[in-house]
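Hi P.,

Sorry for the delay on this. The queue was packed all week, but I finally got your sequence through. Input first:
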Amino acid sequence: FYQDGNVERFKGRVVAQGFRQEQGVDYEETYAPVTTVGTLRYFCAIATAFGYHLFHIDISTAYLNAPMDEEVYLIPPPGMEIDDNLVLRLKKSLYGLKQSGRNWHILFMEVLLEFGFTKTKTDPCVLTYGSHSNGDFTSAAMWVDDLVLLIQSMQVQAA
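Then the structure:
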């Protein structure tokens, strides 16, 4: 709304009816790991003890960016008219689908690995980049669509 009370814009969100999905038909797996609370405490302790920078990032509309592996079709939402011989097929994940969290996790891990991060052996949602001795250490912890970054130095180094 504008300050005078008039509507600035109308917003809508299409949400899938995940409760209608059947395992083995509409999806295979839904598990997406998240980091532990202990890891988040560890990040805070390291930041405090060594003067590292700590950031929290909430990735808005994260699920909408993840590609779908399964074929999922939608009933058109109310008010949307399409020809009788056409269907709506999802190409990307949508809020409400059981596998959306997993699809997002897989996509985001692939992106971080492409940037040169490496997975840790102790936590499947923690990745590291650089080294303490070079002064370019960065660690990232994923929690659904949130990211906690532990950064040694804010200096950007040329590759």
